[in-house]
Amino acid sequence: MSAKITIKAIAEDFKIRGSFTISRGSKTIAHVVTCIVTDVENPSIVGRGECLPYPHYGESVEGTIEQIERVAPQIAVNPNRELLLTLLPPNAARNALDCALWDYEAKKSGKRVWELAQMPKPPRKLETAFTLSLDTVEKMAEKARENSHRPLLKLKVGSPEDLAKVRAVREAAPKSRLVIDANEGWTPEITDELVPQLAKLGVELAEQPLPAGKDLEPLKGKHYEGCVLCADESMRGRLEDLDAQAQSYQAVNIKLDKTGGLTHAIAIAKKARALGLKIMMGSMVSTSLSMAPAAILAAGYDAEWVDLDGPLLLAEDRENPLHYEGSIMFPPEPSLWG
User: According to the CATH classification, is domain 126-329 in 3.50.50.60?
Assistant: First the structure.
């Protein structure tokens, strides 16, 4: 059987504006993998997808490219997203190829991805969080003051000074809504102590307070008044994990690099809603090409929190990038994706 498409995966680097720091470390460059799908009969039809391999999950740029190249021969003769789900686990490699296949189908059919996916709601302008990376109390307050016009700020925390940092940010940005992300940096005792105090400061969501794998039992059945607990690292893209997550969390952060693409992310969003979970639509620090499919899903399933500010944190982005006005994110144009 002859190939219907060609598949290529390449490494690309995009500089971050300054640096991006969480409880596990800092980085100054987003090392992404771009997957390019080209129609054999009509090479002008090209689909693209992007992922950011995450070392915390044992991923690398080289390994991600190797995974895409390994399954490329099978997908080239049968560009089927359901087949792809059986060939790769939910990871960055599958995300890049899955999103490239969606973009390819949209370009080939002349329809937009949300039409092909039969999303419950069409794309719309979204209000995204703006992330303040982990830093000193003074520097986080300064950054908050610079961005006090933004409606939603997300604070990276995970240090002994967390309460002081949130207080300083609240004083510097009194009108902004706040969410925090501990990136697995707390203990059960710290969580019990801090979350009620953070709620009084207006923090409405606390993301992944405990290390994944050690979080479900300590948090089971817990509810903190005014502040929702949200699973992130604990939710590795497996649909069956959601049942347990719903016993310990009230929200789940859906990231395409962890669900292995838009196809499986749609299934996770549907089940999350069925279980009564709220949704945060998140992403890694990457370009507009990564944000575009996530934006479509966020609008389609009315995500309560949108954290798709990756391009705002970069010193450079792709051609035909997403359009932002402050923290308002506009739907992607066909020239970018979908």
Answer: no
Among residues 119, 80, 122, 92, which one has the least CA distance to residue 31?
92
Where does 14-133 have alpha helices with state H?
Answer: 61-77, 81-87, 92-109, 113-116
Q: What SS3 state is found at 77?
A: helix
Predicted TM-score (pTM) of this structure: 0.94
Beta-carbon contacts of residue 154 (< 8 Å; ≥ 6 apart): 129, 130, 131, 132, 178, 179, 180, 181, 307, 309
Residues of the chain by 3-state class (helix, strand, coil), percent to 5: 40, 25, 35
* pLDDT recorded at residue 26: 72
C-alpha span between 54 and 92 (Å, rounded) = 8
Q: Would you say residue 250 has pLDDT above 90? A: yes
pLDDT in tens, 185-228: 999 999 999 999 999 999 999 999 999 999 999 999 999 999 99
- Interatomic CA distance for residues 116 and 302, integer angstroms: 18
* Domain topology for 5-109: Enolase-like; domain 1 (3.30.390)
Given a cut of 90, is residue 245 above it in pLDDT? yes
User: Which stretch of DSSP H or E encloses residue 145?
Assistant: helix 137-146
Q: What is the DSSP letter of 258?
A: H
> How is 152-180 classified by DSSP, letter by letter?
EEEEE--STTHHHHHHHHHHHSTTSEEEE
